[in-house]
Structures are given as C-alpha cells and as structure tokens.
Amino acid sequence: MLMGEFARRTGVSQRLLRYYEEQGLLRPARRPSGYREYEEADVVTVRSIRMLLAAGLNTVTIAELLPCMVDEDRIQEPACSSALPYLDRERARIDEAVAGLLAARDRLDALIEGTAAAGVTDEEACAVASGGAQGPA
Question: Residue 78: pLDDT band by 50, 70, 90 thresholds?
C-alpha cells in the first residue's frame, strides 16, 4: 500500500511516517518511481512504535526493542529476554523524572503554603516586597 493509504490505516501522519523511516524504525520498500510501499506487517510495526512511545521510550531505544516485539492479538510485547535491560533502563529513567517532578511539586506546595500563611492580600505590599513589580506579565 502507498503512504497515503498507510497513513490512513495507521492513523499516523505522512510526516511522522517519514520521521520513523529516518530513525530506522520503518523500512518500506521503494517502487521504481521512488514511492514508498508498505506491507501489512508495517501496520503492526507502527502499532508497536506508538505503544512504545506512549510508554515514554525514545526512538533510539525503540529501534533496539522493535526486533523483539511480537503482536499477540493486537497487543505488542517483547518476546525475548534481551529486551529487559532496555526496559529496566527506561523504567529507571522514568522513575528519576517522576522523582524530580514530585520534588518540584513539594517545593511549589511549600511556596503556596508560605504565601497563604503570610496572609498578604494587598497588591501594593506585594509590589513593594518584589521591588516594584506588579506580578507576572
């Protein structure tokens, strides 16, 4: 199938399909005219790519994992234990990001509490305390 039909079948834009190809995630055949030609198996590959992206993985890691992915009743999952180090690494990266976001939220909560506890509601007092600024622009 040609790219337009493939984009409709997968729900992925043609631009994004070209990006997947640039990243080595898709390898469509080429007609003598230069047009890309996709197979039914490429639909499954795109489904795997989308699922792995949704899990927070980057395209480099996805390229490493794709050879291990199998389609079991429209559910993509790794079929080889060699994928575990990649998955563990990505989980650790996501855990670190979550911890950073939670720490940022805690700092923001402390600022909110401190501001509310101060009880300052006069905008002029806030402007004087901040050196004349009248709040965010």
Answer: low
**Whole-prediction pTM value?**
0.65
| Contact indicator for 37, 29 with CB cutoff of 8 Å | yes
CATH topology of domain 1-79: Multidrug-efflux Transporter Regulator; Chain: A; Domain 2 (1.10.1660)
Domain residue limits, the chain = 1-79, 83-131
Residue 62 near residue 25, CB atoms below 8 Å? yes
The pair of structure tokens assigned to 30 is 């080429």
Helix (H, G, I), strand (E, B) or coil at 13: coil
Give the CA distances from residue 102 to residues 88, 96, 114, 116, 124, in Å, rounded to whole numbers and listed in that order: 21, 10, 18, 21, 33
